[in-house]
Amino acid sequence: MSARKQLLLKKHRRAKRITLLVALLALLLAGVIVAWWLVPLLLVLGWVAHEAWFADHLFYRGSDDYQYVFPEDVETQVVSIVAGQVRLSAGLAEGETLVLAVRVRHSWLGRWLDPFVEVGDDRQDFERGVAGVRYLNLSGQRERLASGELTLRGRRCRLTAQAVLHVMRSPDYSRQRTLILAPHADDAELAAFGFYSRCAEVAIVTLTQGEIEAEAYQRMGLTKAAAARLKGRLRSWDSLAVPLWGGVRPSHCVQLGYYCLQLPAMAAQPELAFGSRESGESDIRSVRQHNPLMLPADQDGAPTWHNLVADLTALLEHYRPEVVITPHPELDPHGDHVATTQAIFQAIARSSSKPATALLYANHLHDNDRWPMGPAGMGIALPPAIEPLPADRLWSPLLSDAQQLDKAMALGMQHDLQGPLPFKRRLRRWIQRWFAGRRWPASGENEFFRKAVRRHELFWVRRIGS
Q: Where are the transmembrane segments (predicted)?
């Protein structure tokens, strides 16, 4: 977790403690002045209200504008929203990725139920209490937009009569040789299953075993270290086997075997070896036996930053990608994700193979743990960017219903996304279903089945070297 994410979470928890303390004092006062039985009743009602409406981790205000800047060559025009239909002010420029910046304001009901915008046959949700500039993803709606048939209708919210349309043109990157960097097993599927399942030449490299937080395996009678080793083996297997569901051959899947949550420490001290926090292991060769080629770190098995960069350099020269897909270093706060992108950029600087383009993804956010908001199967609006990001182009390819189903099944094969929800989280979902109108897909209980299985995938396009 990044320092900024930790600071936001610390402020959130402090504000919540102060609010709870004030509420407790008010309850005690009500019990003394009115009747004692009000205290337990109001405690239960207050807890239900918290779980229904105040349990989300949103570390910004609904009135904050999202701060996006796009490259200067991106075509823009002002459009009007008249009787729920989008009217262009000029001809529609060439480009398949369409983003509409529009001011959204909640209705009174939008403070208690999730506000959303119907975009033709799509739906894109926003924060309760939204009252700022948001970015709708109109990708896939080009024909309707050009013909004046695209409808936008706010539900539990209102849209301003004018908006700004950004049109971004990119090649179909799935036709180019691609190397996908996954910090952990399942990151490639979450971010890019639709992409890689139609990519003719793609390789997937997973950096870590993902062995920590293995309490579920301790229930089988294993020690903490043995449970972590088993989880590391299982997730390493997932990283090699699951991509075959999307058509990626085993000869194009590599597991590097470094240890979960240790990549930032490795980057800070490149010559030191950082073994697992929980499994007791310090030799990364324990999960490399199925790799299709020998790599530099196979000589000593040491989990060092120097070995990681050397491994990635060798993989670049072996697969010679034109595109690399890697976590967004400014948007995704997970320490292993930030370090993954740092490592691949260092490897590119050393390698004789120079990819031209990086496609960046975000499986986690600083500011909002629910993004993409709304139900599975819908579109992906742009995530909160409360602080300005680099001026990257966007590329948002579409997934058919069949591809979305295959993506959900691929996630279901990942051991870390299996298993029942804890009782507290299951109870919270039941409360939110009945009081806040939220729904979760039948494909899996983990939150990523809702967040990742969508009609869009979303990438930030960055020219390497720029």
A: 20-49
> Residue 1: what pLDDT?
44
Extract the tokens encoding 153. Answer: 């209708």
**pLDDT tens, residue by residue, 100-153:** 999 999 999 999 999 999 999 999 999 999 999 999 999 999 999 999 999 999
pTM, two decimals, is 0.93
Tell me the CA distances in angstroms from 286 to 230, 256, 257, 314, one per residue in order: 11, 10, 8, 20
Give the CA distances from residue 318 to residues 237, 341, 350, 435, in Å, rounded to whole numbers and listed in that order. 22, 19, 14, 54
Which tens digits make up the pLDDT trace of 9-28?
666 567 666 766 666 666 56
3-state SS, residue 310 = helix
Residue holding tokens 């369409």? 98
Q: Give the C-alpha separation, 415 to 234, whole Å.
A: 7
Rg of the chain over CA atoms, in angstroms?
A: 24
Which CA distances in Å does 458 have to 177, 240, 254, 260, 327? Answer: 19, 24, 24, 25, 12
137 by DSSP, 3-state: which? Answer: strand
Distance, CA of 120 to CA of 98 (rounded, Å): 14
